[in-house]
Please model this.
Amino acid sequence: AITDIAATTGVGAVKVTGVFANMPKVSGAVFAVGEKLLWDVSAGKFDDSAAVGATGDVMGGAIAWEAGGNGETVCTVLLTPGNSTVS
Model:
């Protein structure tokens, strides 16, 4: 979402492609530039491709724009619409 979307209306502007910095990341996730990332719905964070998706998680909806290291809590991703699968 570009801005907060009110729960009462569910209406708002979103971006579906582009590079986004300071996105939440699972601190133990380690990934290389270009690696497909998993969006962990329950954690609300990106995880590496070795993560096992749970119900509702999204794989391949983003790739790592920069490498992600152990202990880091934010990452930079490129959203890749049309390339994802949902667990």
Notes: The chain has no helices and six strands.
